[in-house]
């Protein structure tokens, strides 16, 4: 069966991926240990961002879809947010810094942006409709957190029949244990688990149709 591939990056934005903003604005009130925050942010910036950028460049060169998901409310006060995000205090107003993508992996030209206000992008957005319109069957997923929004995206896509790949070195959780646990529960059940270089090699050897 012919396949069309899209790269989906999850929540690589100021809200939850950079020190001094959003979740990491006030470490003492976050309930997360300093060691965990240091581990997570170090992995995001030294591992996740470079690998996502590498895959984005590859997909752009091939003319394949690069899709960006983020947490962003429909309203300035966030009244449209899911109960989950209200309970967790997650809110990125339209046009706010918290809703802005990290510059190194931000959308370019007319790349598709999907906004959501819950962990599960397939439950909280029209992404399935969009992917169906694009004819996408092969979804490569990266971003943060591995065990939360990334895992929800992978499982949602798998349930809907997509061929899913979770990129192990382009994802991060707040601890290595949570990251590894998600990889173990995902691999071979909901998705293939590959490294960035393995993804690029696989798609070079077996290119999806444009």
Give the percentage of residues in beta strands.
Answer: 15-25%
User: How many individual β-strands?
Assistant: 6
SSE string, helices as H and strands as E: EHHHEHEHHEHEHEH
Inertia-based shape: globular
Strand order of the largest sheet: 3-2-1-4-5-6
Q: How many angstroms separate the termini?
A: 13 Å
Class from secondary-structure proportions: alpha/beta
The major β-sheet equals: 6 strands, parallel
- Integer count of domains: 1
* Estimated helix fraction: 40-55%
CATH superfamily membership, which one?
A: Isochorismatase-like
Q: Counting H and I runs of at least 4 residues, what is the number of helices?
A: 9
Q: Specify Rg, calculated over alpha carbons.
A: 16 Å
CATH class, named Alpha Beta
Describe this structure as you would to a colleague.
- The structure is a single chain.
- This protein has 210 residues and is α/β, with parallel strands linked by helices.
- It contains 9 helices and 6 strands; from the N terminus they run E-H-H-H-E-H-E-H-H-E-H-E-H-E-H.
- The chain is 43% helix and 18% strand.
- The chain is globular and about 50 Å long.
- It has a single domain (5-205), classed as Rossmann fold, CATH 3.40.50.
- The protein has helices spanning 14-17, 27-30, 34-62, 83-88, 121-124, 127-134, 146-159, 176-186, 196-205, and strands spanning 5-10, 65-71, 112-116, 138-144, 163-172, 192-194.
- Strand 4, helix 7 and strand 5 form a beta-alpha-beta unit.
- One of its GO terms (molecular function) is hydrolase activity.
- It comes from Pleionea mediterranea.
- Residues 47-198 form the Isochorismatase-like domain.
């Amino acid at each position: 069966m012919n396949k069309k591939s899209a790269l989906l990056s999850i929540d690589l934005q100021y809200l939850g991926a950079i020190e001094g903003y959003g979740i990491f604005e006030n470490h003492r009130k976050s309930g997360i240990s300093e060691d965990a925050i240091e581990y997570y942010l170090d992995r995001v910036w030294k591992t996740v961002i470079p690998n996502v950028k590498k895959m984005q460049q590859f997909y752009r060169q091939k003319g394949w879809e690069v899709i960006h998901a983020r947490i962003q409310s429909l309203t300035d006060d966030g009244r449209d947010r899911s109960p989950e995000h209200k309970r967790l205090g997650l809110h990125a107003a339209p046009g706010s810094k918290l809703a802005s993508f990290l510059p190194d992996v931000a959308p370019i030209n007319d790349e598709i942006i999907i906004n959501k206000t819950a962990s599960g992008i397939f439950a909280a957005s029209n992404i399935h409709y969009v992917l169906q319109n694009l004819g996408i069957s092969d979804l490569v997923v990266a971003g943060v957190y591995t065990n939360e929004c990334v895992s929800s995206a992978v499982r949602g896509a798998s349930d809907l029949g997509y061929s899913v790949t979770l990129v192990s070195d382009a994802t991060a959780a707040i601890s290595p244990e949570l990251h590894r646990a998600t990889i173990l529960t995902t691999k071979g059940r909901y998705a293939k688990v590959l490294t960035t270089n393995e993804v690029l090699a696989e798609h070079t050897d077996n290119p999806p149709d444009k």
